[in-house]
Design goal:
The chain is α+β, with helices and mostly antiparallel strands and 248 residues long. The protein is built from seven helices and ten strands. The strands form two sheets. Strands 1-10-9-6-7 form a five-stranded antiparallel beta sheet. Strands 2-3-4-5-8 form a five-stranded antiparallel beta sheet, covered by helices on one side. This is Stp1/IreP family PP2C-type Ser/Thr phosphatase.
Length: 248
């Protein structure tokens, strides 16, 4: 599997509160993690860094037997997210300058072409395959609730004054229940994990226009970030782009 990771501060922010990373074990299991520290909260960068670091530590330590079935992998993801949530929450209680901090988190566990995804917040996963684009995740946001209930249109959602109001994030409450998704990646598929600094600026058509041409995956990642910055770059911009395509 080819991949690239990008994390850019953008054009307006003084601190990059995003973190993104891709890890691979000797036994072929892979883990892609993206965390977007809560904007407007204290120490969002601390929360996102804790999420990535602790998830990586747990991934390195887990026995291969605990990944022997889909249910076992789901159990591991659920327990890992719960542990990290409590760790961030307790840290915020004991460090005054970090009170109220939180972070989104996408964790994608890959076993060959099988992918299990844990999701908290409004970071997103997109699946590109067979000339179609699918938004895999469902935002945990106030605006998305309004949209799903038919109270606002997709156009109104784009510029809603409470667009950044997140209903669920790691570290803001003592317990958390993430959403889970399952994907099987074909031999011509791309998987894009990104923070809202990217998804708020690009349409899926624009993403596909960059992702599908015959350029390197590294170039694709950089072009996605550049376009988000060209559109204003008000937020941090982070992504993990993975593909089963054998690029030259």
């Amino acid at each position: 599997m080819n991949f690239t990771v990008e994390s850019d501060i953008g054009l307006k922010r003084k601190i990059n509160e995003d973190r993104a990373a891709f890890f691979e074990r000797p036994d072929h299991f892979k883990l892609a993690i993206l965390a977007d520290g809560m904007g407007g909260h204290n120490a969002g960068d601390v929360a996102s860094e804790m999420a990535i670091t602790e998830m990586h530590r747990l991934f390195k330590l887990v026995d291969a037997e605990d990944f022997a079935s889909k249910q076992l992998k789901l159990d591991w993801l659920r327990n890992a997210v719960s542990h990290i949530n409590q760790k961030i929450y307790q840290y915020s209680l004991t460090h005054e300058n970090c009170q109220g901090m939180g972070t989104t988190m996408i964790a994608a566990l890959l076993d060959e072409n099988e992918c299990l995804i844990s999701h908290v917040g409004d970071s997103r996963v997109y699946h590109f395959a067979d000339e179609e684009v699918k938004l895999v995740t469902r935002d945990h946001s106030y605006v998305n609730i309004l949209l799903e209930n038919g109270e606002i249109s997709e156009e109104e959602a784009l510029n809603h004054p409470q667009k950044n109001f997140i209903l669920k994030a790691l570290g803001t409450e003592i317990s958390i229940e993430p959403d889970f998704y399952e994907l099987t990646l074909s031999n011509e598929a791309y998987l894009l994990i990104c923070s809202d600094g990217l998804s708020n600026k690009l349409t899926t058509t624009e993403m596909a226009t960059i992702i599908t041409p015959q350029i390197s995956i590294e170039e694709k990642g950089k072009k996605l970030v550049q376009l988000a910055n060209d559109r204003g770059g008000e937020d941090n911009i982070s992504l993990i782009l993975m593909t089963t395509v054998q690029e030259v």
